[in-house]
Amino acid sequence: MLIVVVGAAALVAATGVGLALAVSGPPLPGAMSGLPGYGSMLGGAAPPGWMTGGTLPRSMMGGGADPGKVMGAVLASAPGPRVSPEAAARLGQQVPVGATVDRTRSRITFHRSTVVLAAVASGPGTPMYSFEIAGMVDPTVVVPTGAHVSIEVVNRDGDMAHGLVVTAGGAGSSWMPMMTAAPAFEGAAVWVLGDPTSAGLHAATLRFTAGPPGSYEYLCPVPGHAAQGMVGTFTVTADLDR
Q1: What is the CA 155 to chain-centroid distance, rounded?
Q2: 196 assigned to some structural domain
Q3: Using H for helix, E for strand and C for coil, what is the string for 153-207?
Q4: 3-state SS string over the chain?
Q5: 95 and 169 in one domain?
Q6: Is-above-0.90 flag for pTM?
Q7: pLDDT bracket for residue 14 (50, 70, 90)
Q8: Can you tell me the distance from the alpha carbon of 35 to that of 200, in angstroms, rounded to the nearest whole number?
Q9: Is 70 within a domain?
Q10: Cβ count near 239 (within 10 Å)
């Protein structure tokens, strides 16, 4: 276990509080050299240690600064794929192959064993705390059991971190789902994506196999965001033809 100070200047400026964080794993090069364990934030089975252990800043526990803004600024230069705002706009409106869209019920249903879709966080024209999928805000997503699911998550918010995790129902009411919303399926989490830079918008893809039939949730795990409404229903059913 290694204790490091992560993004100290940015965090102190935003919160007025020093920060000691418990993390694990080898450091990454470049701008993220102070963030060991960053790789586990993209599709890992649990948040990296610095999200759940060590000493969190007061803002993460309900203090003055918005934790989403703190994380967004600290992770703005994180490694990983980027997309343009124009590409993000297309992804947010795109109806996936093999899907049936019911806009009246705000529902998208997949009838095949390969599911590929995009979820754009906080896009223009949508509520700040929302995901845009196939031109709908936080729709119910229905997939067959055993489906191989790929969700590209794009953070289109200009000054706020967002992520997406598929978890068991009920986690959306938690103020800090990072500490309570374990992924329902292995790989079903992109924990946090930082602010955009001149390189583009942060994007990451989570991949998992949909497990037993049931009702789950997809939500933003950044503290406070799911409680503000950034959550939707993810249904796995055995009743669809594949």
Answers
A1: 8
A2: yes
A3: EEECCCCCCEEEEEEECCHHHCCCHHHCCCECCCCCEEEEECCCECCEEEEEEEE
A4: CEEECCCHHHHHHHHCCCCCEEECCCCCCHHHCCCCCHHHHECCCCCCHHHHCCCCCHHHHCCCCCHHHHHHHHCCCCCCCEECHHHHHHHHHCCCCCEEEECCCCEEEECCCEEEEEEEECCCCCCCCCEEECCEECCEEEEECCCEEEEEEEECCCCCCEEEEEEECCHHHCCCHHHCCCECCCCCEEEEECCCECCEEEEEEEEEECCCCEEEEEECCCCCCCCCCCEEEEEEECCCCC
A5: yes
A6: no
A7: very low
A8: 21
A9: no
A10: 8
Among 65, 53, 120, 62, which residue's Cα sits nearest to residue 93? Answer: 120
CATH number at residue 123: 2.60.40.420
Chain segment 16-27, per-residue pLDDT in tens: 322 222 222 223
| Alpha-carbon dihedral 121, 124, 127, 128, rounded to 10 degrees | 60
